[in-house]
Write a structure and sequence with these properties.
43% helix, 11 strands, 17% strand, 6-stranded antiparallel beta sheet, alpha+beta, binds zinc ion, 15 helices, elongated
C-alpha cells in the first residue's frame, strides 16, 4: 500500500493545487497511471482507499498524485472531519460514471482516466464533458477497417494514426476521419468523443473489440501529438523512402547523374509500404515486395554504373563491374562514399538489401524444401534473430537495418 503523509491540511492543500505534468520531475521520463491501494494521513486523520490512480514514472518509479485522486482525498477528508471521525475507508464509485457520449453502445472505459491523465479534462474545445476519454480496444479491430474498402487506415508512427470512412457522395475525401493510437501494451485507443461521431455500423464493428482500460496512454505518439502538439516523426518505413529520395537528389546535384528508375511504378509500390498491425506472412510479404521494387529495382543500373565510373578511376574498378546489378553497385558506391568514415562495415550495413532479395524469392517462388530451409536459415543467421517463426522480430530488425542503411546513403551523399 502506498502511503502519503501530510502534517496539516495546509500541507495537503499545497499538494492539491500543484499541477502534475505527465513527466517525472526527477528524471523527466513519461509517467503512466497505475491503480494502487492508498493510505493518506492528514494531520491526525487516516483515509484509506482501496483503489486510487497514481502517476508512476516509467523510469525511476516515483509516484505522484494526479488531480482527480487529490480531489477524492480532499472530499474524503472533509467527510471525515464533518462526521467527527478520525479514520475512513473509501471505495471507488460503485456505479461507474458515464459521460454523455455513446450511451447506447455502452463502451467500457474508466472516467477516472479523463480526470487524472494530465491535459484531458482541460480540453476547452468540446462543450460536453468527457470528449478526450481514452477508450481501449484490441488492436485486431484495425484489421477489419484495413480490409473493408470503405475505410482508410493511415499509420503515421508506431503509436499514432488516423482512420477515415470514404465519403460515397464524393464531395469530401472522408465522411469522417478520426485519430487513433496504440499504447505500450499494444491496445488500440480512440477518444470517446471521436467515437461518438462515427456511424452506427462502425461503432458496432468496434464494440466486440472494446476492453477495460489499462490506463496506459501517456507514452504514445498519439497522446504526445494530440495533447502536446509534438508532431510525430514519420514511421520508420516511410523514413527509409524519404532517405532514398534525398540520396537520389544529392547524387543528381553533385554528379549530375539521375539514378532514379521507374518513377511512377515506385510511387505505386510506395503506397503499399505501411507499418503492419498484424505480423502475418501476407502482410509482411506485401511490404517486403514493395521495398524490393522500390529500393532495388527503383535504381537505374546503367546510371549507377556511370556513377561507379565517376567514383572509381579505371585502375581501381572491379574487373566484373559491368555485370553488376543494383545491390552490388550500391555496395560499391557506399564503399566509396564512406571512405572517410573509419571502421564502417559496409558489407554489414548492406545486409538488409540482400535479405530483402532473399525474402522476396522465398515469398514469390515455388522452391524446393531444401532451398526454402537454406533461405530461412540465412535470414535468421544474418539478422541474428531467434527463429524464422518470429516474423515480427525479423521484420523489425530488417526495417531497423534498412533505416540505418538509407540514413547512411542520405547523409554520406551530401
Ligand atoms: Zn522518474
Amino acid at each position: 500500500m502506498k502511503e502519503y503523509i501530510f502534517d496539516s491540511y495546509d500541507d495537503f492543500y499545497n499538494e492539491y493545487i500543484t499541477v502534475r505534468s505527465p513527466q517525472c520531475i526527477e528524471c523527466g521520463e513519461d509517467c503512466e497511471l497505475v491503480d494502487s491501494e492508498v493510505a493518506c494521513y492528514i494531520k491526525d486523520r487516516k483515509l484509506q482507499f482501496s483503489s486510487m490512480l497514481l502517476l508512476r514514472c516509467k523510469n525511476c518509479g516515483r509516484e505522484y498524485l494526479p488531480r482527480y485522486s487529490k480531489q477524492m482525498i480532499d472530499g474524503a477528508y472533509k467527510l471525515v472531519v464533518e462526521a467527527n471521525e478520525f479514520q475512513g475507508v473509501f471505495k471507488p464509485l460503485g456505479s461507474k460514471q458515464q459521460f454523455d457520449y455513446c450511451k447506447e453502445q455502452n463502451y467500457l472505459y474508466d472516467y477516472r482516466d479523463y480526470f487524472n491523465i494530465p491535459g484531458l479534462c482541460e480540453d476547452r474545445e468540446h462543450y460536453i464533458e468527457g470528449f478526450l476519454t481514452p477508450v481501449y480496444f484490441e488492436k485486431e479491430a484495425l484489421v477489419y477497417f484495413r480490409v473493408l474498402p470503405e475505410y482508410e487506415v493511415n499509420i503515421f508512427s508506431e503509436s499514432y494514426g488516423k482512420i477515415g470512412k470514404k465519403d460515397l457522395s464524393g464531395r469530401y475525401q472522408y465522411e469522417w476521419d478520426v485519430p487513433f493510437g496504440f499504447n505500450t501494451a499494444g491496445k488500440l485507443i480512440m477518444w470517446l468523443g471521436d467515437i461518438a461521431v462515427l456511424d452506427d455500423k462502425t461503432k458496432n464493428i468496434l464494440k466486440p473489440f472494446n476492453v477495460e482500460s489499462d490506463h496506459l496512454l501517456i507514452d504514445s505518439d498519439f497522446y504526445r501529438a494530440q495533447l502536446r502538439c509534438v508532431f510525430s516523426k514519420p514511421i520508420a518505413e516511410k523514413q527509409i523512402l524519404l532517405n532514398k529520395e534525398i540520396f537520389i537528389k544529392n547524387i543528381k546535384k553533385k554528379y549530375n547523374i539521375d539514378i532514379y528508375h521507374l518513377v511512377e511504378e515506385c510511387v505505386v509500390h510506395e503506397k503499399k509500404i505501411k507499418h503492419p498491425v498484424i505480423f502475418s506472412e501476407q502482410n509482411i510479404s506485401e511490404v517486403i515486395n514493395a521495398y524490393d521494387k522500390v529500393l532495388i529495382e527503383g535504381f537505374d543500373v546503367e546510371q549507377m554504373r556511370k556513377l561507379y565510373e565517376k567514383l572509381y578511376c579505371e585502375q581501381k574498378r572491379d574487373c566484373n563491374y559491368k555485370k553488376w546489378q543494383s545491390i552490388k553497385l550500391l555496395e560499391a558506391i557506399l564503399q566509396m562514399l564512406s571512405c572517410t568514415v573509419l571502421s564502417m562495415d559496409v558489407r554489414m550495413i548492406m545486409s538488409p538489401l540482400y535479405i530483402l532479395h532473399d525474402y522476396r524469392i522465398f515469398f514469390d517462388h515455388l522452391l524446393s524444401l531444401k532451398k526454402m530451409d537454406d533461405i530461412k536459415r540465412h535470414i535468421v543467421e544474418t539478422l541474428g534473430v531467434s527463429s524464422f517463426d518470429e516474423q515480427e522480430e525479423i521484420y523489425s530488425e530488417e526495417i531497423r537495418r534498412l533505416g540505418i542503411l538509407f540514413d547512411c546513403f542520405a547523409i554520406l551523399s551530401k
